[in-house]
């Protein structure tokens, strides 16, 4: 059976061939992984800030109700 895509280029750099069934070449696999990890860290910081804001709002509601 003839395979249709024997030489698939990396979708990120468009310069290197990818391992079979993978979208990125070896170099870009590590680069994308680092970008994803950085994005998750930033998302965690963002959600942590929202959680703190939510707690602050709840504490203000409680103190307003007690007054
Ligand atoms: Zn690449």
N-to-C SSE series?
H
Span between N and C termini?
Answer: 79 Å
The major sheet is characterized as: none
Number of E strands: 0
- Protein structure class: mainly alpha
Quaternary structure: single chain
The distinct bound ligands, ions and cofactors come out as: zinc ion
Average pLDDT, rounded to a whole number, is: 91
Name the poorly predicted regions.
Answer: none
Protein architecture, described:
61% of the residues lie in helices and 0% in strands. It is mainly α and 67 residues long. The chain has a domain at 1-40. The radius of gyration is 23 Å and the shape is rod-shaped. The mean pLDDT is 91. Zinc ion is lined by residues 10, 12-13, 16, 24-25, 27-28.
Task: Give a nutshell description of this structure.
The chain has one helix at residues 26-66. It is mainly α and 67 residues long. Bound molecules: zinc ion.
Keywords:
67 residues, mainly alpha, binds zinc ion, single chain, 0% strand
How do the strands and helices of this protein lay out in sequence?
Blueprint: H1 26-66
Bound molecules: zinc ion (ZN).
The site of zinc ion has 8 residues, from helix 1.
């Amino acid at each position: 059976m003839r395979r249709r895509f024997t030489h698939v280029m990396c979708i990120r750099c468009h310069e290197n061939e990818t391992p079979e069934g993978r979208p990125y070449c070896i170099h870009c696999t590590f680069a994308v992984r680092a970008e994803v990890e950085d994005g998750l860290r930033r998302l965690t910081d963002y959600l942590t800030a929202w959680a703190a804001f939510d707690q602050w709002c709840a504490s203000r509601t409680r103190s307003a109700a007690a007054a």
